[in-house]
Structures are given as structure tokens and as C-alpha cells.
Amino acid sequence: MRSLRALVSTPLNRANTLVVAVALVVAVTFPQFAAEPTIGVGFVALLYAMRNLTWNIAGGFTGLLSIAHASAFGIGAFSVAVLTWQHGINIWLAIGVGILLSAAIGAAVSLIMSRFGVNALFFTLGTLALAVAISGIAATWSVTGGVNGLQNLTTQEGILHLQWFTDAAPLYYVALAVLVLLTAGVSWMTRRTRFGRSLPFIREDPVLAASMGVAVIRNQAIAMGVSMGLTAIPGALIAQYTNFVSYDSVLSVEVGVAMLVGAIIGGSATLAGPIVAGIGIAVLEELLRMFAVSSSNVSSYTQIAYAICVIAILRFGGSGIVPLWNRLIVRLFGTGRPHDPESEKSSGRSAPDRAPAPEVVSEHA
Amino acid sequence: MAVLQIIATGVLQGLIYALIGLGLYLIFNVMRVVNFAHGYFVLIGMYGVLSLKPSSLADFAVALLFVAAVAAAFGYLVERFLIESTLDKSGHAQLVITLSIGVALQYLFQVLYPEPYQTIRNPWPIDAINTLGVTISFARLAAGTVSLVLALALSWLIYRTRLGVYMRACAESLNGAMFVGVNVRRVYRSTFALGAAAAAVAGGLLIPFQPVSPLYGLELTVKAFIVVVIGGSGALWGTVTAGVLLGVAEAASSVYVSGSLASSVIYGAFLLIILFRPQGLARKRVART
Amino acid sequence: MMKTALSVEGFSVWRGRSEIVRSVDLEVGQGELVCLLGSNGAGKTTLTEGLLGTIPARAGKLEFDGRPIAGLRPWHRVRAGLVLVPQERSLFVGMTVEENLLVGAGPRAKAGPFDLAAMYDLFPRLKDRAGQLAGTLSGGERSMLAIARGLMLQPRTLVLDEPSLGLAPVIVQVIMKTIGEINAAGVGVLLIEQNVHQALALASRGYVLEGGKIVAAGTAESLLASSLLESGYLGTTTSTREEAR
To answer: Which residues between 167 and 196 in chain B have a beta carbon less than 8 angstroms from any beta carbon of chain A?
Structure first.
């Protein structure tokens, strides 16, 4: 009851509850009024949202800016391609294998990096190198189809095979259900579990967190494992949608960069940010296509646009679309409380922020 | 014979990597900024010279100076307006900003130069030289030599000029530099501009024999990091040596291992280096009392 | 009445999000030697960094030689004559002793009494070590080099943050004597110390900083006599420090 009341307790909560409710209704009814190709756009939007969300467990909540998630996405796709398409193993099993394999790689990467005391910047660099190396292996390995990739030649349809060749709507609903489940799960994890609540402390200052008794190395490894494991799911779904995978399409480093960029545009410290940005990016791509930008350039222009958005967000100190929206609502309708310690604290902070402070990370390096 | 050919090609290519790496070495050691856009600064040089279409050696030299100036100005503006305000925040902001600059440049080049793998006609008077059974394109030989000369010039700048003293001071102790009145912001802007210019000149030297594609930027970024990590944060010559090593390793692996797997091997090796020699990029640890 | 060199009112300094120094008032006259006492974690170092402007600070009034300096960058404050010798020394460990001294003495540096020769007179040991890397110096030599490097900037007021920290008593004597000489040459000094008695013996006035606030101020004699020092405030303030964090 208490949590239900919290949904409408302040103007901000009321506004966001309304937005989420409307979004859910639109998402559920979308295939009913949208034309067939547009359902595909909706499916891609849900996938973008999903992979941004799963990336954000490690990247946003824990502060591990990983590019290796491209490999998790690709492993999810290739698990389906190799096990189901090539060897006829049931797809749900194949997805499970993809999740476990990605999770193991994620946890191992994190543990090895911690073992050798790799700092945050090297973490990104190292995961980048790993992503490139894995993509190179897939490009030469016959099992993954080499440079030609793999094609889906199976014919079975239905939920058991997670495949509907002529209708995009079922896969769309699967993606929607998975996204809702993942969102609820991540929300529960970050609010209700000790592990989840420790993540922001690790992000802000791992040394301080360790001194407060947080098992930093273990929790970072779990976060990377969970995050990369779950990133295999959108990878598997995209494989079932396109029925074709290659090292180029699902393992490219750009996939990892896209997740990072998407989560940051949306607001990487928030739950909703990555989802909002994922859907927004898909819609933006579609709009550009409608304005008859030549198709090979669409993705170029959108990539440039995201890059500029990210730079602007980081440069001007914003923290993404969702935090901006929250601030807008609070400004328009107030906080709904007579005395708000949170806003008071932040106004006290803003003054010294303006003072010159050219201190650099150097002392930690 | 094959070995000689590998070494000659590798060393020359490595000297160019060294010049690219030196730009990154400066930016990293002086500012502690991990510049993911660095490989794309090389692309500015490659595409810049490409679009100027130099037809003579003099044209080519002018084109090199021009791309150096453009890249320096670009680097200066990037530092001044995008990096500077984030220096007092966590390192993540700079990392993501430079990564995004790289992404933006990559797709910008994609739109501007849709035809992939372009190159220019050899601007040097000789095409190739042939001795001891080794064939070297003259453009490659000249590029390696010019890179070496520029590395010497950078070394002179760092150890013999006022700006160099300030840059070393910032690299050794940022607080120390501020407390002796060094205008740290000016030093940072100069460093970033210099690093970008070095990368762009290297790009200009590459373009006569290295066809360019927008995807090349990321590869060069990672290679530049490989050079800097292996070279370590000590003397600048460590970076040059590391560049040459990378060049030779690459030349050798391209002969013995097939295409994409060769790059996998190099990136995998780099991952191991990060694990075992992270101090390559980190600061020297000397007790501070 | 002595002219004021450094004048600070309502000065607060932040480290991260916590306000470590809270609304401090402080004054150093021209050529005066003032000491600032306080236990570990009282906020002394934070205060000095705030004065130099390397970390966020806010002040009702922050003036140096009658000029507001709140808007100036650290290096401009240094060039104006407000020089800090930091507690961690911040030497350029990969450069030689002489290179360390000369970094700040660029072509546009002010000329003044403190040149290389004067530094080697003041600290003969540095002369012996001139060509050696700063990273190879002993603790005492590092402190000397840090002070000499600061003096090369021709300071009008020198802020010394615990110059005797971690040094053997004999070396502390040498350093304290030299600080006296520097002050006698007309340089104002704000000496931050835990060596209460030695610091007060040199200083004309003193402040006591506790939990980020000035809790006592006065002439050296009055502070020496006060019960605050006798009650042994040093080391008894762990709880205050915890609160300040």
C-alpha cells in the first residue's frame, strides 16, 4: 500500500506514473494500429532500450564503462545461430547458453582486471581490445561462419522456437515482456538488495566503498556478470528477427559504443534513462529515413547526432534526458513538500561548483 | 630475405606509429586524459591531404603543414571548450567525450567520403628502392624518416624549451606546477594541440601508401594506446621503441597469420599488456613526502 | 599599524561535497609571521588549498595586498606573490634539484632577492645536490627544496604547510631557523604547524583551527598561556574530525 501511495505522493511521482502508464498502454496496443514494417521499428526500439538497460547495470550503476558488452550482444546472437540454426538445439536452451557464457566472460573480465589492479580508464581500453579481438576471432572461425556469417535456415515457428517468419508482432510482444521483466528486476535489484544498493558507492569511490565494508571486487564482478549475461538476451532476439548474424552485424565495437552512448544520453544514473534513450534513438533513425535521407547515411547522421548529444550532456553538466525531465517537472509543479532537504543540499553545492577547481584525477592514477 | 623485408617494412611503419603514439603520450602524461579520439586525429591528416590532392612534393609539404595546423586548431578548441571544464570531474567524462568525438568524426568522414579506401598518387620523386632483395616503397621510407625527425624535434621541444619544462612539470606534479605559477590551462591547450598535430602529420605521411577508411580511426586509437602502454611513462624514447616494436610485430604477423586473426592476436596481446604492465600508462610511483 | 597582506573573511572550503573549512576569518600582515595550529584533520591543508584556489572555496572577503583575488586562478595568485609550500611538497621528482628551482623562474618571472645563488646560500645542502633527481632526496632535503622552490617565485607572503612534518628534530631546528631568516628578509609567513611551541616561539600571532573553524586567536604569548593548549587539544579531536567528513 505504502509503495502504491508513493507513486502519486509528489507532482514528480504523479507525472512519471502517468508517463509510464501511457507508455505501457501505447507499447501494448502499438502493433494493433501500426503498419507491419513499423512494428519492426518498435521491436528495434525495444531492443535498443533493453541493451542500454542491461549495459547500464555495469556502466551506469557501477561505473564500469565496458565496451566488451558488444561481445555479450554478439555471443547472444551467435549462440542462437550456432546452436539452434546450425545444430537444431532448442532456442531457449541456446539463449541460456548465451547468457551463461556472456556472464562468465563478464565476471572473469572484471575479476582479472581487479586482480591486476587495472584502473577505470584501462578497464574501458581493455574491454575495447577484448571486443575487437573477439570480433576478429568470429571473422576467421568456421563455426561462426567467418566473414560471411550465418543464415537461419530453420522452418519451425511458434513460441517454442521463438520464431514467426511472417509476423513481427509476436516477437515484438516477447521483447516487450522481456523489457518489462528486466526493468522490474533491475529496479528490484538496485533498491531492495544489499548488492544493488552498494553499486552507487562503488561507482562514486571504490576505495571509500571498500573501507565502508562493501565487497567491491566481488560486487563489480557480479555486476559485470549480470550485466553482460543479460545483454546476451537482446542479442539473441535480434538474431531471431534478422535471421542472419555476422561478426560485422552483432560483434562490432560500435554496438558497445552505442549502448554506452545510449545509456548516457538517457541518464546513466537512472533506471528509465537508458530505456527512454533507446526508444528515442530508434524513433530518430526512423524519422531521418522518412525525411528521405539516403539510407546509407541515416545511421551516420544519427551516430553524429548521438555523439553531439553525449558531448553536450557531459560538457554542460547535465546527467541525461530523464534527470532533465525530472528537474523540469519539479520546476513546473514544485516538489509537493513544504521542506525538501534534497533540493536544499543541492543548492548549497552549486555555489562551490562554480569556483575554479582544476584538480585532476592525477592524484588517484 | 623475407625477414629483412619484414623488418624494413615493420620498422618504417613502426616509426609512424611512434609519431602517432608520441602525440598520445604527451596528452596522457601531461594531462592524464585518455584520448580516445586520437586515431581520428590521424584521419584528419589522412583525409585532409587526400582532399588537397597534392600533385608535387612541394604541394605535399604544404598539405602536411596545413593538416597540422587544422588538427592543432581542432585539438585546441576541443581541449578549450570540451575537455577543460571536465578536468575536475571524474575521468569518465573525458573518456566518453573523446570517444564521442571519435564517433562523430568517423561518421562525418563516412558521409563526406563515401568511397572507401582512397589514396593519393605518390608525391615523392622515386617510386621504390631495391637493395639486398628488399623492396621498399619510397613513400614509406620517407614517411618513416620524417617521423623519426619529428620525434627528435618533439624530444627537443620537451627537454629544451620553456613549454617543455612546463609540460614536464605538469606531468610530474600538477599541484606542484600550479604552485610554482605555471598556467596549467595554457599548457594543457598547447599539449592537446601539439598531440593532435603530430597525429595529423603522421596521417598525412601515411596516405600515399595507406588507403583510408573511416573505420581506420578506431584501429589507430588502439594502436596508439598499445604504443603508449608498452613505452611507459618514462622517457619519450620508450614510446618510439614501442612504436617500432608494434610495426615489426604487425609486419611479421601479417605474413604468418591470416588477416583478421592477426589483429586479434595483437589486440589480445595488448589486453595482456594492460594486465601485466598497467604502470606503462600510470604515473611513476616515487614516494611523495 | 601593520598593513594587511592576506585578509580572509567568512572563508569556506569544500572537498568533494563536504564543507571542510567553515567560515574562517584570518589575517596576515605584510612581513608578519603568523602561525595556524591545529590537529590532524582540522582542515589546515584544505584551508591552504582553498587560499590558492585549487579546490572550490567561497569567501565573504578574500584579499591579497588589498586586491580581491577570489576570481584569480591559482597560478595568477602565485604570480601576485601568494606562494604555497604544500604539505605533500609536490616536487617534480623526475627533475633535478636545480630544474625544480628553475621551473617557476621563467622569462616573465619577477626579479627579486631570491635567486639561485641566494637559495644555495640559504640551503647549502641543496647546492651539493643540485644535479640530483628530486625523487632521490631525503625528507629534510625535500622540505628545503620545496621552500626554496617557493622562494624562487619572490613571494610577498609565503604559506608553509607543515614544513617540519615527519622530520628529525635536528632538521626541524634548521628549518625553523631558516623560516625565521626568511621572515626577517621581509616575507610575510603563514606557518601551519603541529609543533606548537616551536611555531609560537617564531610567530607574533596565532590561530587555532578545530573541525574547520577558528576556535582561538591571539598573540603568541596569550595562546601559549591559554588553557586550550594545556588541555592538550592535539590528538583529542578524533570525533570532531569524523563529524567534519
So the answer is: 174-175, 178, 184-185
